[in-house]
Amino acid sequence: MGDDSTISPKDRFLTVYGRKPVLEALADDGLRVDKVILADTARGPGATEIQRAAKAAGVQVQRASAHRVKVLAGNGKQDQGVLADVVAPRMRSLAAALADRRPPSRVLLLDGITTPANVGMILRTATAAGLDGVIVPRRGVAALDPLVVKASAGVAFRAPVLRCGSAREAAEMLTEAGYGLYALGASARTTVFDVDLPQRAAFVLGGETAGVGAEVGELVTDWVSIPMPGDVESLNVSAAAAVLSFELVRRAR
Questions:
Q1: Three-state DSSP class for residue 82
Q2: How many other C-beta atoms are found inside a 10 Å radius of the C-beta of residue 184?
Q3: Keyword set for this entry (predicted)?
Q4: In sequence order, what are the residues at sequence separation of 6 or more whose Cβ sits closer than 8 angstroms to the Cβ of residue 20?
Q5: Global pTM?
């Protein structure tokens, strides 16, 4: 099962929309903005300010219909008639990462995580922990939009994001490439602290309510849990990702 090897713009850019996020991206020397798209209905001081900021940053401004901007932003209520495509230098397709001479050894796979705040916090944590990749499927997971960027405190732009169609597709590709696939589940006897890991391992983090889906679950090598001596049933998925990520840091040391 292969991912299409053509590089989609969605595998190169993170799109931000709204006047303030676009102006912030243009003003950030650490970011490279590919282009700004401004609705042809956008007029007045706000539009002028964006055009001035884009010119100062050497970024091309394209005009498009207000409807087109809404479609591209994917969020008609808050785009304010402007969006920017920001280059995400570490984002690439999962297929490209697996075909690399040195494929990633430790990756997270997001399966059905639909809350942008959780996706953003997981990207921030995994990047801080130096993980090799976070697989964010295009389907079934929150879109990489300004809400995710905000929750990551801007780290999403520099996170090692790997893209593919679905979590099932990712699980098949990882299995085929010889990865052990470990899913987090509260009732598993093996814990993240004592599981024996192969050279290459992927960890599946399931959705906020349903957990790891059946389609991915049937491909799992082993289920692992986070031991919780206190009287709490489960952790928020971003908190669980943090525990797992820093256990991997501890092992690497």
A1: strand
A2: 24
A3: Methyltransferase, Transferase
A4: none
A5: 0.89
Sign of CA dihedral 109, 112, 113, 116: positive
Q: Are 216 and 183 in contact (CB under 8 A)?
A: yes
pLDDT of amino acid 75: 63
What is the C-alpha separation between 158 and 23, in angstroms, rounded? 18
Residue 62 β-bridge partners: 37
20 in Cβ contact with 75 (< 8 Å): no
DSSP letters for 207-243: BTTTBS-HHHHTT-SEEEB----SS-S---HHHHHHH
**Average pLDDT score over residue span 67-90:** 86
Whether the pLDDT of residue 225 is over 90: the answer is yes
Please list the residues that pair with 137 across neighbouring strands.
164
Chain position carrying tokens 């169609």:
165
Q: Residue type at 107?
A: V
* Cβ neighbours, 10 Å, residue 215: 16
Cα three-residue angle 26-165-153, rounded to 5 degrees? 35
Rounded to whole angstroms, the Cα distance separating 209 from 43 reads 43
Of 153, 159, 145, nearest in space to 88 by CA: 159
- 140-155 confidence digits (pLDDT tens): 999 898 889 989 998 9
> Max Cα separation, the chain?
62
Residue at token pair 């050894």 = 105
